[in-house]
Amino acid sequence: MNPTSEQIKQLLSDADHPLGVKELLRLAGLHPGQQTELKRTLREMVRGGQILKEGKRFRVEEPRHAHATSRPHGGPRGHEEPGLLEGVLHVHRDGYGFVHPLSGEGDNVFLPPAEAGRALDNDRVLVEVMGRPGRLEGRLVRVVQRRRQLVVGTYEERGGRHAAVLPLDASLPGPIRVPRTQMARDGDLVKVRLGVGSQVLDAEEGLFGEVAGSLGQRGDPSAEVLSIAYGQGFNDEFPPEVMDEADRVGLAVSEEEARGESRKDLRSLPLITIDGEDARDFDDAVYAEPQGNGWRLVVAIADVTHYVREGMALDAEALRRATSVYLPDRVLPMLPERLSNGICSLRPEEDRLCMVADMVFDARAHLRSYELYPGVMRSVARCTYNEVQAVLDGEDVPHRNTLRPLFERLQAVSRALRKMRQGRGAIDFDLPEHKVVMGEEGQPERMEKRERKESHRLIEECMLAANEAVAKFFQDEELPSVYRFHGEPDEQKLASFATLAQAYGFKLRMDEGLSSKDLNAFISQLEGHPEQRALNQLLLRSMMQAVYSSTQVGHYGLAAEHYLHFTSPIRRYPDLLVHRLLKAHWARRGKQRSAAGVEREEERLEAMAEQSSERERAAMLVEREVISFYATLLMKDRVGEEFDATISSVTDFGFFVELDTEHVEGLVKTDALGFGGRLDKLLHALVYPDGRRIRVGQKCRVRLVSVSPERRQMDFEPLELDSQPVTRQEPRPRRPWEREAPSPVAEPPRHRRFVREGQREEAAPSRFEKRRSTPREAPRPPAAEEPRRRRFVVRPALAPETPPEAEAPSRWQPPAREPDEGAPGQEAPAKSPHPGFDRIRALAAQSHRVAQSPRMAPAHPAAPSGKKTHRGEAPAGKRKGAPGGGKPSAPKARGKFKPGRR
């Protein structure tokens, strides 16, 4: 009788280590003939997620808390065992991968193809770390969390009840096995829901899943966009249990909800929202009025935590996504649209619950007092950036003229806040962003720069002020929270940038440390300089990336002592978490918590902070890759056209250019400029032997050579640099005495030597071949229609009977067509025109006087006419140079040899 799945789970739970099939057979008391049935049961349990498979062994999954982790501060997340690291796996197209630590600190761990192939790209994995710092290598222990749930691919019907889906993403291992379905036809693009859980992949079984829907025929750009998003773990659909909870949320705010939780009624305050033209979720509203010699600023934020409670499936899914992803043709929201665009969105003329930061500033925009509280509000208008900017510019906008005084008050507050921040050293790179303008049929029409207007800055300053006020509250009350951390720039990178800036005539002092105020002063010097954008981009790369952390360190870029995110809970999980922590503090009514409770809370928040940081980086990758994909679609029909461009970055394999009018970026490979270029890392320039320098910010003219939407890549060739025609740098010709570089071969190269004229050139025998006594076959002469091109190598292996003059011509002197080689009356070849060649011949001739042993004899001496010889044997009679064969005679060198003569 075969054991049930419960009995197998019990056996695995009782064991102190993962068990193999034979161990399970023995422990269950089964006969070896029942092994096949046991394997089938184990396979079904793995697919169902009941047990985990590690290599050829099985185990049950240890219970894990939803958010808590057990680790010392700074150690591997979730594990206390030394030598283990938890991180995110990134698989290269060549098969190998790297595991990036969740904390973002420390070295990445290399996984060879055999290990990286056992998990999927972007999986959260646990690896055993080996090696030394700088050269860490790992072994995959298990998959902690499978990021990718959906895959886009081509549906192919196969025999029987099964079909296969070929994924568009080349990083996935092979076809995905799926049951046949009526939802798609052969050749359709489909969406597949993977059936693998958190176990390590089996090389024999591969991936399996089920078709979740058809996306139509291949060639639809939206399918490629979905594939990019799925590859980073983002979905366009929510699990059924999440949608069930969302459907139970009401569509309007009741009076009971409006009066609950000690909410202040702000429905009489004329709050407004200001967002983009195509925005659908409005999570912030603002209002300003004069107060004394300063200002009162009210920032009301949607109260998402009223509907998304801790422990709900909605909350777990929001944490898994951690952010909304905004793409040119769609939004992948963090919350279902019923919440994000419905009850949580601050729609005009509708009651909404909110969390409020009520702040008072003096005339210099220093915060004098603030109050945080829950409220209920009613927006009076849904304004757009373009409308507000038109009013501020003095234009007549009839349906917004009544709000002109409020717009002007908000402008005055924002200008005062910006002046205050700049005074304390906040950095403003002001780098333009690009956006894709989509047509009505879902095709990209053009790429244009995203203009940053005064109306954008107005809202930015209000949100920054609210975030700082809430962060100050958490610091004053000494409460655990999730902060936005931005550290000081890397000193080494900053020193390299200072060297580069000096080459452009700008001085960045590094002797007494560099504050953000000093850096901001440097950026102001670049205003109007031709290289302003290029230098700003290079300076930005030397800065640290902002992340979320449970530790408050400050924000270097904003020159803020306290900072967190509070103003976007619809699209960012850390903001939602801050709202929840505020409410929890108010509910305790001043009761103190134990030190152990605070420590557990900080560990839980740190885990959420790392998850949010990792998902934020993934969202940025998706947005960047989708823009690159649409850019290639825009340019695919323009191959061969010429464009004016600016060099945006330089690498050792080429440089990237941005087209001045089309605002797309592509690559110019170093091969297009010729031989000899090297990367000067200090100057961020490609330097060539003829003095040319390819540097960031340089103007050029290029021609589009190729476009690959699949790889999201465009290749250009340079035509002009700084209005000068580009000349290709060719490698100098080899000189006669220089040896030719060996051509790449499949096997390691072996020494070669020349043999008698009329015989083919062969590799020198290996040690094993020299020991063999078996005679070899006689060589075949080369084909007459293809004269062999020989190269000269100085080796003492010429036959004694053969004078050096009879040697084959050199590599640079093609052989002439002559009578059969070795025929009577053959004339010696003409003297070489190269002066050093005769000297080399003479040296080779002299070396033969000490090289007449049988080992150094020619491989194939010529046999007399009519006499057959075995390969490698001399003809009958006495051999010269052998015992009893007489005194060997050295071949005569042509001409006289004198030291120093060439």
TrEMBL record:
A GO cellular component annotation in the UniProt record: cytosol
User: What functional role does this protein have?
Assistant: 3'-5' exoribonuclease that releases 5'-nucleoside monophosphates and is involved in maturation of structured RNAs.
Query: Which family does the similarity line name?
Result: Belongs to the RNR ribonuclease family. RNase R subfamily.
Name the record gives this protein: Ribonuclease R
Compositional bias (Basic residues) spans? 66-76, 893-902
> Could you tell me what reaction this enzyme catalyses?
Exonucleolytic cleavage in the 3'- to 5'-direction to yield nucleoside 5'-phosphates
Q: Which parts of the sequence are annotated with region: Disordered?
A: 57-81, 715-902
Classification via SMART domains? CSP, RNB, S1
PANTHER family in the record: DIS3-LIKE EXONUCLEASE 2, RIBONUCLEASE
Q: What class of enzyme is it?
A: hydrolase
Where the record annotates domain S1 motif, the positions are 640-719
BP terms from Gene Ontology: mRNA catabolic process
Q: Which gene encodes it?
A: rnr
